[in-house]
Write a structure and sequence with these properties.
By secondary structure, the protein is an alpha/beta fold. The protein has one domain: Alpha-Beta Complex (Spore Coat Polysaccharide Biosynthesis Protein SpsA, Chain A), CATH 3.90.550.10. Helices cover about 25% and strands about 15% of the residues. The chain contains four helices and five strands. The chain has a five-stranded mixed beta sheet, sandwiched between helices. The C terminus is likely disordered.
Length: about 160
């Protein structure tokens, strides 16, 4: 029982924008990654897609994006989460990504694969000094409606953090 990490290539930067997805979400993640890449000419950060056991293949036509594929296996690390293996693995990857990639990256921004990137300065975002707050998050629509709601996946675990994405 332990976490294993396999990557398609070494990290090329100490900063990364990271998506978590499976093959069903891959087109969305690649679309967002492409938008970030086009909005950041000469970018100095990695764009990564983290996944589980299911292999992810980036089409050759998108190879200029230089996406780093990272398989993270969290088997057995998060017992007690919901019994639904697909949802549990998704949550585990979200929780594990900073630990799994700590040797590669000093700064990570985790993004859901279903976002639409309109614009922004991603280099400035990665350079933002969060002070003594190493983690941040934004609410999903469900949490906007019920801000005190505790994520179902976290019930039964000894944490007191409300849900965020």
């Amino acid at each position: 029982m332990g976490m294993t990490v396999e990557a398609s290539r070494p990290a090329r930067s100490r900063q990364a924008m990271i998506f978590r997805c499976n093959t069903g979400c891959l087109p969305f993640a690649l679309h967002a990654a492409g938008r970030i890449d086009r909005l950041t000419p000469g970018r100095t950060f990695d764009i990564c897609i983290c996944h589980g056991e299911e292999p992810i293949v980036v089409p050759g036509s998108l190879s200029p994006l230089d996406v780093r594929l990272i398989r993270i296996d969290t088997t057995g690390l998060f017992t007690g989460l919901r019994p639904d293996p697909v949802r549990t693995h998704d949550v585990c990857l979200r929780l594990a990504v900073t630990q799994a990639l700590a040797a590669d990256y000093d700064r990570i921004i985790y993004l859901d694969s279903d976002i639409f990137v309109q614009g922004g300065d991603f280099t400035a975002l990665l350079g933002f000094d969060p002070g003594n707050h190493p983690r941040g998050g934004v609410r999903d629509i469900i949490q906007w409606r019920t801000p005190g709601r505790r994520a179902e996946q976290f019930r039964g675990l000894p944490i007191s953090v409300p849900a965020f994405s």
